[in-house]
Amino acid sequence: MVDFMKRALELGWEALVAQEVPVGCVFTIDTKIVAESRNTVNETHNPTRHAEINCIDQVLDHCKANNIDYKEYFKNIVVYVTVEPCIMCAAALNNLHIKEVIYGCANDRFGGKTVLDVSKFYDHNYDVTGNVLADEAMALLKQFYKGANPNAPESKAKK
Amino acid sequence: MVDFMKRALELGWEALVAQEVPVGCVFTIDTKIVAESRNTVNETHNPTRHAEINCIDQVLDHCKANNIDYKEYFKNIVVYVTVEPCIMCAAALNNLHIKEVIYGCANDRFGGKTVLDVSKFYDHNYDVTGNVLADEAMALLKQFYKGANPNAPESKAKK
Questions:
Q1: Which residues of A fall within a CB distance of 8 Å from B71?
Q2: Region A65-77: what's the mean pLDDT?
Q3: DSSP per residue, B82-118
Q4: Least CB-CB distance to B88: which of A71, A91, A109?
Q5: Average pLDDT, stretch B20-44?
Q6: Of B77, B139, B79, B78, the residue nearest B105 (C-alpha)
Q7: What b/e string do you get for B104-121 counting C-beta neighbours within 10 Å, with b at 16 or more?
Q8: A155: Cβ–Cβ under 8 A, 6 or more apart, which residues?
């Protein structure tokens, strides 16, 4: 578990270097990483390109290419993400019936669990565990907000 | 206003013919349609491809191609959508600081306003008006759920 979060943190560092809000994410099934990404909002000029959405699209591409039923596939996925998924991402993950989310630090403004529990509106809920290597995840965010985010100077602690 | 919703309903019909959950959407600025789409979840095998997300991507592509600041552009956009945006889409639209949403019928299960008011977690809120040609929008949904949705047989009134 910790190894997967460490990989997510590495991706968060990659985001920081690329001047993105530093959030990294890996999707796993059993002991294997099946998708990994980071926030690419500034790079793509697309505010919906959060790390989780990028991973979702990687899995969907994989399923399409290999003729796999994505609905069955997502049911086995455990998501490791350095910051709690925002409301948009939490809704998307609920919609996909993923198995579990393990996150680092909470998302105090837009958290899809701690700020607004999106899951209660969905029939199928995933398990959520927070506070896994939270200090490391928060350190990345702090590092970022010390510097400048060219595309979102007004947004603090925003994914 | 009604003409824009009529166009959204036409796109909803298109979705129905394509065996998608029938939701259509147009994005407008002043008197002009700047993006239009429909639900393409089944066609793309991607459960995040709601009509609004497709329109968002069209606008972002347009801004990129024409070197327009998308943040400024979205501020002027009024969204017409046949069914109230779901939690995921409402969060994305809030995140983009769009001007206004006008919808047809409410989304009783996943509505990002009526079921769960996502907007209160965002600094900048858009105006929302519902119940515009709601009967027509609801008739499309009823027509769909009378038939079969090959990819989501268990999901009722789900966008």
A1: 151
A2: 96
A3: EE--BHHHHHHHHHTT-SEEEEEE--TTTBTTTTS-G
A4: A91
A5: 96
A6: B139
A7: bbbbebbbbbebbebbeb
A8: A149
The residue in chain A having the minimum alpha-carbon distance to the alpha carbon of residue B45 is A60
Q: Report the predicted TM-score, pTM, of the whole model to 2 decimal places.
A: 0.83
Structure tokens belonging to residue A91 = 């809704």
What is the arithmetic mean of pLDDT over A73-96? 95
Could you give the residue numbers annotated as active site of A?
A: 52
Rounded to the nearest angstrom, the minimum Cα separation between B91 and chain A is 5
Max intra-chain CA distance, chain B: 45
Q: What angle do CA B38, B88, B26 make, to 5 degrees?
A: 30
Query: Per the structure block, which two tokens stand in for B14?
Result: 């298109």
- What is d(CA A126, CA A122) in angstroms, rounded to the nearest whole number? 10
The CB-side HSE value for A121 (13 A sphere, CA atoms) comes to 27
Average pLDDT over residues B65-87: 96
Least confident of A39-43, B78-82, B119-123: B119-123
Q: Provide ipTM, 2 decimals.
A: 0.75
Under an 8 A CB cutoff, do A48 and B95 touch?
yes
